[in-house]
Each structure stands twice: as C-alpha cells, then as structure tokens.
Amino acid sequence: MAAVDFLQRAGREVPPLIGGHELVMLAMTHSGSDFPKWLVDAMGRATRTRYEAVPPVLRSIGRYISAQNFKEVHMPLLGEAPQLKPLLETGEISYATTDEETAKLKLGTFATIVSFSRQMIENDPGQGFLGIANGFGTSQANLEGMTFLNLLRSNSGAGPTMDDGHPLFDAANHNNLGSTTGAQGNLTLENLKAARTKMRKQKGLDGTSPINVTAHHLIVPAALETDAEALLADLYPQKAEDVNSAAKGLTLHVEPRLDAFSETDWYLATGPERADSILYADLRGQGVDIDIEPSFERDGLAIRALYDFGVTIADWRGLYRHTYSAT
Fold this sequence. Notes:
Layout: H1 2-9, H2 20-29, H3 35-53, H4 57-61, E1 63-67, E2 73-78, E3 100-105, E4 108-117, H5 118-123, H6 125-152, E5 177-181, H7 189-200, E6 217-220, H8 225-235, E7 251-254, E8 266-269, E9 278-283, E10 289-295, E11 300-313, E12 319-325
Parallel strand pairs: 1-9, 5-12, 6-7
Antiparallel strand pairs: 2-3, 4-11, 6-8, 8-12, 9-11, 10-11
C-alpha cells in the first residue's frame, strides 16, 4: 500500500498488523510523510481523466478562457476588417474603423465535501479514493453542462438578453430562430436547410458584411436522438458522392438534460474557430481543487472538492434554435 511506503520513507516504523484505517490516518498526519500530497495529486489526476471522458456539448462549441482571478473578464469581440479601397493617385491611404463589442464573464465557486468513513478505508481504500475522484470528474462535467444549458434555456427558452436588448434567440432581430407546426414536421431536411441558410446569411458587427457562419454541430434532446440519427443516416450514404450537402460537416450531440426543458427544440451551433458565441472559463486551468484532512466530526476523512467556473453567451450569430408544435 502506498501509505506504508511513505511512512517508511519518513522513518516511521509500521506495525505489521496495523489496520487500513489506522495506517491511512497515520500517513495523513505524520509530519514527515508526503502521503497527503501524493493522494491529492493522484485523486486530481483521476478526476481530470474522468472529466475528459465525459464529452459535454460546451467544450465542443465554446471557447475556453483561463481566468487569472475572480475579477470580471472582459473579452473583446472584434468586428470585420475594413474593406480595402483603391489607392488614390496622390498616394493617400484613407483611414477606417473596426466595430467592436465586449463579452463579460465572471467566475463562480462551487464546492462539496464527501465523508470517507473508517469502514470504507478498512474495506478498500484504493477503490474508495478512486471512486470519489471519478465522481468529482463527472460532477465537474455535469456542472459545466447544466450551467450552460440553464443559460441557454433561460427566459423561457429564448435565452439571455443580449447587449442589443433582444433575447439570444430572436427571429426578427437576430434571424436565428425557426418554428414549425403540424405537417411541416420538426427535424426534417427542409427545416435543417432553412436553419443552415439563416446561419450562413448572418451579418457581422457592422450589420452589413456577411460572415458566412457554418453550422458544425446539431444538438438535440434525447427524445429526438433517433430522428436525428435517421436524418443524418439518410444524408450520409455509404457513397461519398451521394452525401447531401445539407448535412456535410454536422456532428450530432445528444443532450438528455435538454428534455427537461423541451423534447422538441433542437439547435445548430458553429465552433469557436468561426465565432466566439460561447465563452467559458475556470481559474488558471486548475480544474477541481481537492483537499483531504482528518474529520473530527466523523470517524474518517473529509474530502473537499472546489471548482471555480463561469460561462457566458457572447454572440448570437453562431447559434440557432428551432421550435416545433404538433398543433
């Protein structure tokens, strides 16, 4: 067991019949043992491994920022470069300006404490620590996903109010909201074509320059998973030359947490390489901060997990929502 190795390196004699709980507690509290640091590092690695194994939508469509502190992050969103104009005979070059907006993002702190009882330590400390670390990794991914989805679905599904005073999804002002009823169907080829066309026609910050936004991600609730797979299967035949252009480059994301909001709404999104629609951040890339100490209230250890995270929707141009009503 690792605790024995650390105690022996620290010059502490380990009784041969010592129990697992007593051994771990001794290694945790011995002044010359590096076991606490090793255990925290090992749990941190396991947490990161499990977190990376859970593929939330946010990491695919958002841009990551490493915040250096808890102050509000101001991220400039630059508009289109000014048009090049013919050089005058005098050699004079005219000045131009570029439109700019600012996205704001602030971290919040999320934390929990897990009790690791004496019985758990005695029975199987290695698997117990690993199980808790894996749980923290899953919780981190779930926290990011739900924080983003709560923001996306705020205002009864219309999304947060943007800097122009209009909700994120606004057919009249942002051209990123579609709606069908009854026989028009929901997740159909025609509706997908209409959605992608609207994204392509989005204008830049100057309100006139087309920015040619490409939809790369199709996001659906679990209720539409089979419909989405069937549609993409029809659009992705075995022969490459038969692939329908409406589905080229689309990656399907099934997000079961969307079903609690709506089982019929679906979304298109571009990636961060095309538009900074979504920004998310943690504190200096630290991920989940884990700390372990003996618990004086209960017989065992207290394991604390703390995570600093924030997300914002900075621009509507890279997102599209489609709604459907059967009647």
